[in-house]
Design a protein that fits this description.
By secondary structure, the protein is of the alpha+beta class. The chain has one domain: BH3618-like (Roll). Helices cover about 15% and strands about 30% of the residues. It is built from 3 helices and 11 strands, in the order ββββββααβββββα. The strands form 2 sheets. Strands 3, 4, 5, 6, 7, 8, 9, 10 and 11 form a 9-stranded antiparallel β-sheet that branches. A two-stranded antiparallel ribbon has the order 1-2. β1 and β2 form a beta hairpin. The radius of gyration is 15 Å and the shape is globular. The protein starts with a strand and ends with a helix.
């Protein structure tokens, strides 16, 4: 299937790679279908969550454990039920990244991770009730702290 995107032009995707978000993404509740476009550079941890319906809409995402190895979340039972999670090995977690003009100030949202049941192709942005995390954790600041320890 051909998918038209603003950032990547026309790309070929497989229908079975489409992830259904019953509730959409916060602020984009009408957007229900997305695909993950992986970065071709395997050393680059940033990927894209591209809307299937809206070529203009793509979120930069990252595996939050790459930046914050101690990231520890407990998925609410309601989210587990909505995503039909039966085995934790089927769960993939990403966080949305905000990329400002000054790349050193790049942040990621750890309080609202994107949780995907890779087996069932269901996704949900889960809002955590955990005051350890905010919507703006600096990506590069944390990596620099890790390197200096």
């Amino acid at each position: 299937m051909k998918l038209n995107t603003k950032n990547f032009g026309k790309i070929e995707i497989k229908e079975e790679d489409i992830i259904y978000f019953p509730d959409g993404i916060l602020g984009f509740e009408e957007e229900k279908q997305f695909v993950i476009i992986n970065n071709e550079d395997e050393q680059n941890p940033f990927h894209w969550l591209q809307s299937v319906q809206n070529p203009e809409l793509a979120f930069v995402i990252i595996n939050p454990f790459f930046v914050f190895p101690d990231y520890d979340i407990i998925l609410p039972k309601s989210a587990q039920d909505k995503l039909k999670i039966e085995d934790k090995k089927d769960v993939v977690i990403y966080s949305i990244v905000v990329v400002p003009e000054d790349m050193e100030k790049m942040t990621t949202n750890l309080s609202g991770p994107i949780v995907i049941n890779a087996e069932k192709k269901l996704g949900k942005q889960v809002i955590l009730d955990d005051d350890r995390y905010t919507t703006k954790h600096y990506v590069f600041q944390q990596r620099a702290q890790d390197r200096s320890v």
